[in-house]
Amino acid sequence: MSRSPAHFKRTLVDLEDWVNKTAIEDFKIDACVDRFLVRVYRLNRSILDQLESSSYYGFGRRAPKKHPKPLEWSGEGAEELREIASELRDNLNRLLPGYVEENTDVLGNEKVLRKINSRWEAVGSRVACDREYLQQTSDKDRLVETGLAWFYLRFVETITVAIERETSSALFTCGGSIPIANPIGSEQVLHWGAEHDSTAQKLTLPVLSENSDGSTHGLQTLLDACQPASFGRGGQDILDPEYRRAGKLDPDRFLTSFHPADFGIIELIEQILLPGISGETENRLQFRKLKAELYKLNVYSGPSGHFRKHVDTPRSEHQIGSLVVCLPCQFEGGNLTVQHHGQMAKFEWSRQSSSSIQWAAFYSDCEHEIETIRAGHRITLTYNLYVREMPGAILAPIRPVLDPHTLPLYGLIESLLTTPGFMKDGGVFGVHCSHAYPHSSDIAGLQLPRSSKGADLVVYAVFEALGMDVSILPVLEYDEDYEGNGAPYFGDSEQDSASEQDSDSGRGWYYKRKYWRSVPKDYLARGKESSLRYSEVYPWKSSSALLDEDQHWKRLLLTREVVDVIEAFSFGEKHHLPKKPNSLYEEWGVRVPPHLRRYIGSERGQEEDLKEVTNDVWPSYYPPGITWLVEAKHKEMAFSHISYDNQASIGARYSCAVILAVIPPFSQRGQSGKMK
Ligand SMILES: O=C(O)CCC(=O)C(=O)O
Ligand SMILES: [Fe+2]
């Protein structure tokens, strides 16, 4: 259901005119004020110590706006300050005729003071830690004082490194060994039979070469009963001894006395690869469990048994990994290597092959390989590992065994959140998942975030423990890579409680955000002209650039984005509001839907605008100002459509799973950085 244009007070033509006019005015004012601040800072920085942080008054529902205090100074530089102030007034009036009355003392003028305060908040830390200027003046002490500001400047880099480190140190595989000190009582018995043979064969392991009780014969009959093992490629089972040389028995053809749960193996894997089970008994009982399902018995024999590098084919959407158990039987070579994002783990089982049961578990998206077996027989049982949801799990929170508070990532993000200048107006962190999930499957919504793995769960848990609104959502791929504007919010902020709900999208993630409302949409719907906010990408290297106010406001025009404006434009388009023919405000960036959704095969697209098809088939938004911290690693098909060049063909769009964390504005963050 669309609202008709009649419900709107303004059109997109109005919005564009208003935004352009307002933004240019704002940029001119900011440019003049910035020059003023740089000059005053260089004159005597103590003058600026009187400035209040605008976050103390301009933000928050109930906090009333105080009148900004006049800037008063009778100390050193008082004379020059008066001169700089009258220059500010002249510049303002030159760029915006009539902005302040002639002969006004701008240092006592409320309108100008407000700007001075908010611009100091926005650029002050950078003016103060302008390295080039500091080097000129060899003002080293100040550098220490403003280290925090420098830290802030580098925040994207820092967090990204921290998350990457978390990602790479996260476990993707684990393994162990159970020694068979005394074979009596710990031997493993295998039974198997030929398809039409009722007489079952039996083998007791370990096979000790010196014993002559028929075990070696038993081993030979086991080998005889095996069929050549195939492997999956492109959805087909392929037999290719070049790639895999092994024998296999399907699970309906054999029985084993070995059960991994008897040795606590499953529990161990749950703790390491499924760190979603908390230490609390209550959650342990209610939460996620692993189920191991016997999949195959494999025998790799010397001198040439092997399995080249591959990824296992998941047998269901619930499968998260594989378990390999190596039964005691002597062999040489045959190392198992497991790789994940450039990291490798090696399981060398030959040395203890006759005296231990050895095992390894790894996530489904890990590449692994079995090196050539030089001699003997490597007998393994493979299991598929599934996540099992326990009753009550739906409501259970995610609480990793790892206490998120102890992670370095937690400390780092906490310190950023308690820094006033850091994302003062709030924002969104976007972190691409490091593991592949079937995030466009039927049960994606059930699985994520609960079955998220390793590093992803760590990142999720840290954000959640800090009280952020966290979700795992797909983002539609965008021009091969996933660009965001990467810029934190700066500038004026204002908040009221009106938060508009889009009638079409209901309680979607985007509209659910509690922290700021859309000024441009307010303008369209109600004609309300509140202050615009800008997302700032600010490439200046030296604060000297700010001294040229005529250049500076034009640069602002190029490097700033009006917060929420793009989204308001697509909103207006959806409601068929008139629009300028060559509008500046086209859609850009990534699309995020309000929830996970399954893959859709669509017949649409023929002679239709693909943007429109996307809007209908995969409704989504362009959230403003997502700060991307980690690059995309995996993608899944989100939907298909008909594309039409010379002839019709099937086109596909892909999406990536990302962790999105909404950062509240500073005024709503408590002492520990958590949401108040
Ligand atoms: O036997 C092993 O070590 C692993 C076998 C394997 O990778 C597989 O069956 O997919
Ligand atoms: Fe495998």
UniProtKB/TrEMBL annotation:
Domain Fe2OG dioxygenase: 291-389
InterPro entries hit by this protein: Oxoglu/Fe-dep_dioxygenase_dom
PROSITE patterns: FE2OG_OXY (PS51471)
Position of the signal peptide: none
Protein name: Oxidoreductase
Organism listed in the record: Aspergillus eucalypticola (strain CBS 122712 / IBT 29274)
